[in-house]
UniProtKB/TrEMBL annotation:
InterPro entries: Lysidine-tRNA-synth_C, Rossmann-like_a/b/a_fold, TilS/TtcA_N, tRNA_Ile_lys_synt, tRNA_Ile_lys_synt_N, tRNA_Ile_lys_synt_subst-bd
Designated name of the protein: tRNA(Ile)-lysidine synthase
Family to which this protein belongs: Belongs to the tRNA(Ile)-lysidine synthase family.
Signal peptide interval: none
Organism the protein comes from: Bacillus songklensis
Amino acid sequence: MKQQVEQFMERHSLIEPDKTVVVGVSGGPDSLALLHLLWSMRERKKITIVAAHLDHMFRGKESEEDMEYVKMFCRERNILCETAQIDVSLYQREKGLGAQVAARECRYQFFETVMKKYKASYLALAHHGDDQVETILMRLARGSTMTGYAGMQMKRPFAGGNLVRPFLTVEKTQILAYCEQNALQPRIDKSNEKETYTRNRFRHHVLSFLKEENAHVHKQFQSFSEKLLEDAQYLEELTVQAMNKVMKRKKEEVLLTRDAFLEVRKPLQRRGIQLILNYLYKKVPPSLSSVHVDNLLIFLESEQPSGVLHFPDGLKVVRSYNDCLFTFHQEEVLPYMYELTMPGYVDLPNGRQIVCEIHNQLPIRVGGNDFFVLDIHELTLPLIVRTRKKGDKIAVKGMKGTKKVKDIFIDEKIPLEQRGTWPIVEDGSGRILWLPGLKKSAYEFDSIHGRKYGILYYK
């Protein structure tokens, strides 16, 4: 097994000489064998080994004994050893996480701390070929990204260095045989046999079946993983090129041009969405799944011009016609209602003004919907400038009957995020007189007979 692992490490350049390697050690067969194997090649490979053990405090005295065993194992071989105890159950309750997710977060935070302390270049973990089979099958069953379907990577960036998995080339029986040959006496965590955990059910029922069909099935899965990752890397390069043409990035926002995105080839669209999510999330939440990506693609393909999707951790995807905004910004839209004096003005939240002036003569008119003429002798006061209400209707000038304000916003392609604060001018009787910049009502004064009149400007 040792020769097989060394060849795997050399073929993929997993660990370079003259570097420090932190080894995650639980005290079980897999991690103990990895620690022993790397320790045995330390002089030849010119590497420094640091063992890192975290007591999750799930099993009380038993897990504390695991920690003491790891300390003793390292002391006997003069291996640097870092240990810590974290109440993961408390962390789990505080963060609202599942037990396995909470344990993983605490463990990797600890590993990162140890790597920084020793300025280590590598974190070596003992995931093996059977683990890889289980991981790929679990992700296929629940859904993932294409990179996710490839399972665990043998080498990936972590804490300023790299996380490596030298044992992906071997299976569990080889590791157990290595422990026996080298007189290692690993600790056994009985929870690994409980079928309450999804991974254990795959291990006991699915993996055992596959091994009956092919005793070296782990090699086939590892080969599949490596090829899929190679393909994914190439497609990711194409995705970056395509997405740079259809999106604009800001600090915590991405603006996507829908029509241009839909012209991107299908195999790159899903990867493009994943690229955006990876950019926006500093740490991708566990609750984010392929279902979110599927829903977003349907959302973009839909002919409905606007809408909002809510993603984990406060990310919103706001579609408004051809624009699709990914944002964490949660600005609350507050309704407003102002009284407009004659003459006078109102400052609006959008930075513009509505100004009312009194005239004896009609000035030269500027065409468009940015002004409105009032017959002050027929006007019911006060004038009100407000935000929209459910069911608002306006008697549009030049049309019979009334039209819903909501439909006007849609027809005029007003972005969804602007509709809640768009000004509406009504008189004291509640009649909507004017949608500034959009539509005038039939109540605009057209005839001047030497009387005073008011004119409203949207500036």
